[in-house]
Design brief:
The chain is an all-alpha fold. 88% of the residues lie in helices and 0% in strands. The radius of gyration is 28 Å and the shape is elongated.
Amino acid sequence: MNAQVESQNTVLDWFKWILVMLLLAAAIGGNYYYGSESLLIRTLGVVALSLVAVGIALTTAKGRYVNRLRKEAWVEVRKVVWPTRQETTQTTLIVIGVVLLVALILWGIDSLLGLVVSRVIG
């Protein structure tokens, strides 16, 4: 009994994914076909069809999995201890300083090698 229900869900999921692809193709094709219409109207049409497609996709097994993963990711983001503005500024200045230092070192090595090669070649 369970295998039969699972099989029906799989077939229904395939149908939903085909419908999602058709809706997205309609959004892209409609945007192209109605190219002479107002950009606002075309944008609203594409957004509306895309939202319907996402809504249908979220009702599939993979869609529910992605939605659960999104929720878990937000839980993890809330756990992050974000740096303060002062820490961010200090770290940025250190990175800029190190980049400039490495750039100067590479410039010096390049100049030295260029001088050596020009002396050897003559």
